[in-house]
Amino acid sequence: MTEFIKEVRQILKSSTDPFKVRKNTFEIVKNLEFITINPDKLSEFGKKLKIQIDDGSLLTSDQFGEYKDSSQHIFLLDVVNFCFWAGEGEDKWRVKYPEDKIIDGWEALVVCFDRALEEKIPLLEAKFLEKMTLDQVKHVFRSCNNAEIPLLKERLEFLQEAGSVLSSRFAGEFDNLIKEGNSDAVQIVKLIIKNFPSFNDVGFYKRAQICAYDLSLLPDMNIKNVEQLTIFADYKLPQILRALGVLEYKKSLAEKIDNYVLIDKNSREEREIRAVTIWVGELLAKRLDTMPVVIDNAIWYLTQKTNKNLGLYHRTLTTSY
Known about the structure:
By secondary structure, the chain is mainly alpha-helical. The chain folds into two domains: about 1-60 and about 230-305, no CATH class; about 65-215. It has helices at about 1-15, 20-30, 40-55, 70-80, 105-120, 125-130, 135-140, 150-170, 175-180, 185-195, 205-215, 235-245, 250-260, 270-290, 290-305, and strands spanning about 35, 95, 100-105, 245-250. The strands form two sheets. The chain has a two-stranded antiparallel sheet with strand order 1-4. Strands 2-3 form a two-stranded antiparallel sheet. β2 (about 95) and β3 form a beta hairpin. α3 (about 40-55) packs across α14 and α4 (about 70-80) packs antiparallel against α11. The two termini are about 25 Å apart.
C-alpha cells in the first residue's frame, strides 16, 4: 500500500482537480480501513485492459438508444441514472421492449425513454416534465414483471426539477447549458451541479461528470477538457475489481456485501469503496497513458460483456449512482 499511496500522491500533484474529487478521495484512500489494493492484480488487469482499449472494445453513443443525437435526451437519462438493483429474494426491475427482449439496469432505462417517445409522450419537453405526475412516471418506467423501479418518487422529483430548471434558467433546452459552458466538460459539470441540486453528489459528482462524458460521445458535440473528469464511482466497477482480485475487502465488509446487507450512504465503508475505485482508475489511466473516462468506459463495458461470475456488488440506497 505504501507504493500505491506514493503513486497516488504523484498523480495528485501533477493533475488538475476542478471538482476536488481527487483531493477529497485521496484523504480517504491514504487511511483505508476496509479495503486493500493488490498491486500484482492491478498490473495484470491493466495489461488486459490495454488490449481491450486498443481493440476498441468500448461503449459508444449506441448505448443511448434510438434518440441518441439529442443532448436533452442524454441529460434526462442521467437525471434518473441510478439504483437499479433489488434486495435479496426480490424481483429485479425488468422491461420487455421490444417484445422479444427482456432487459434490466441502464439498458432498461434507455428503452423506457425510447418506448415513451414512441408512445408520443413528450418526455424530452421541459414543460411536460415540470408538471409530470406519479401516474405518468409509473407508466414510463413500467416493468414486465410487476417490480417497481427503485426510488420511483425520487426519479419523479428529479425529472420535475429538471423540467423546472430547464424552463426557468435555460429556455427549456439543455443545449443552452452546453453553450453557456462553452462545450467545456468542466464548465458543464459545474453548471449542472450549481443549477440542479439532484446532481449534488459532494466529493464524487458521479452523475454530473458522466453526463459531460456521455455528451462527448455524441457525434459533432465536440466537448473539450474531458481528460479532467475522473472515473464515475458507482457499484458495478468495484464489483468487477473485487472479482478480479484488484480490490480486497476486510472480512466484515465482504460479509455485508455477500449477504445483501445495505451499506449506508456516506458511511466510511461506502466512501472507501467509491474512493478506491476512483484511484484505481487514475492509476490505470496513468499507466496506460489514457484518460480516466476511457478507463471507466472500458471497465464498465467489461462488466456487461464478461461471462464470469462477478459476485455481488455493494448495495447502497442512493440517487448518486
